[in-house]
């Protein structure tokens, strides 16, 4: 599939600034993975850029792990990291259990895996996004 001029331009801008396309929490550091901002405006465009670029450039689990270790994710973003590394769709399954994958991340050296649910459910996000 051919990329639009906008997606090509945005991709090139991120690569120029960061050396690659950074993950969501670098693009918007004070963000929540379930915020509406990822489904409209600049957040929606970023998601399109990131997904396209990531799928083109990181084919193996090992490559994906190295990428996400480079950008130490906040705990609330660990489900996105898990879904991206192991090509899962946990977000699409209401009762998906991330626990075994959080353990895998911890074994791989990712920090703060035990804070995933606490950070994800922190009430401060209610004031910001909902």
Q: Overall mean pLDDT score?
A: 93
Name the structural class: mainly alpha
Domain count, please report it: 1
How does the major sheet shape up?
A: none
Radius of gyration: 15 Å
List the total number of helices.
8
Low-pLDDT runs of 5+ residues are none
What would you call the shape? globular
Distance between the termini: 35 Å
Proportion of helical residues: 55-70%
Annotation, overall tally of beta strands: 0
Kindly estimate the percentage of residues that lie in beta strands according to DSSP.
Answer: under 5%
Compressed to H and E, one letter per element, the order equals HHHHHHHH
Topology:
Blueprint: H1 5-18, H2 24-27, H3 41-57, H4 61-70, H5 78-85, H6 99-107, H7 116-120, H8 124-129
Briefly summarize what is shown.
By secondary structure, this protein is mainly α. The protein has 8 helices and no strands. The protein has one domain.
